[in-house]
Amino acid sequence: MVLGIDASSSSLSNKNLSVLVVDDDPLIRMLHDNYLKHFGLKPHVVENGKEAVKLFQLGIYFNLILMDNEMPIMNGVEATKVLRDMGSTSMIVGVTSRGSPSEMQTFMEAGLDFCFEKPLTFDMIDFILKELNMNDDDDDDTNN
Amino acid sequence: MDLVQLQRQLVEYRTSLYHEGFLDEQFTQLQELQDENNPDFVVEVVSLFFEDSERLLNELTKALEQQSIDFKRVDAHVHQLKGSSSSIGAQRVQKVCIAFRNYCEEQNVEGCLKCLQQVRHEYSLVKTKLESMFQLEQQILSAGGSIPM
Fold first, then answer.
1. β-strand A114-117 against A64-68: which pairing, if any?
2. Bridge partner residues of A44 (DSSP)
3. B-contacting residues of A 76-115, CB under 8 Å?
4. B4/chain A closest Cα distance in angstroms
5. Cα(B144)–Cα(B141) distance, rounded to whole angstroms?
6. Can you give the pTM of this predicted structure?
7. How confident is the model at residue A70 (pLDDT cuts 50, 70, 90)?
8. Do A139 and A120 touch, CB atoms closer than 8 A?
């Protein structure tokens, strides 16, 4: 049976999701910020892994964290490890510009849920949001 | 030139940029992000790209002029340039960056210098072309028309 409603792309269901973008490149931050706004989200944006960890320590929870790998002060791999060690249950999606299988693997092993190569596309974000909404729907009556 | 001609010119120009590999579909995605809430999005992102790139190209020139070249540093700059060029769809710049990084890994000075020249060239080409395209768009808007998709 098909519901006929694509909940993941509807801005309504996305409004409750909190998103953090972690990237040292201002152009990428602006781009990802706008991508997510297009899907009805209001992302918070920081420029390195240490800032992301600080937010967690302050008790601020994000449903989704988009994590770049190569950043100064604290890179994506380190930040992901630290966040997981501290007990973060956010969905963490790595966004890497290297794309070599071994680097993506290292990044995944740090505790990512998914890893994509830059640049992000609409399809990738759609996929991520669907996954997020599926996790949130755990207690609902779903048809699948 | 009348409005319809201007619009046709823009479409042809844009198409040629894709065909010649100056832009790829990432640029199309950028255009799709532009709407009434964000009417200058593409120009803003591209301007950021220009600023970023010019800074990086200067850093690269300095780094490669050193007596003893820090290839890690050079690689870090090229990496950033590759990232931003691929994010706006500047395909030809991105391609040179890929080759550039290989030379960095090999610590090949000549290769790096050649790539620097090439990337400067490709960057100035795509900059000129994007600026021309924006100018055409402005002309259309000033004439009271809308930008064809």
1. unpaired
2. A20
3. 97
4. 31
5. 5
6. 0.80
7. confident
8. no
Cis amide bond preceding A119, omega within 30 = yes
Looking at the predicted structure, is the pLDDT value of residue A61 above 90? yes
H helical segments located in A1-112: 11-14, 26-38, 49-57, 76-85, 101-109
> End-to-end distance of chain A based on CA atoms, in angstroms?
9
Nearest to A121 among B29, B38, B84 (CB): B29
Flag if B33 and A38 touch (Cβ within 8 Å): yes
Report ipTM for this prediction: 0.74
Token pair, residue B145, equals: 């028309």
Inter-residue contact A8 to A133 (CB < 8 Å): yes
Residues of chain A contacting residue B32, judged by C-beta atoms under 8 Å apart? 122
Interchain CB contact of B82 with A (< 8 Å): yes
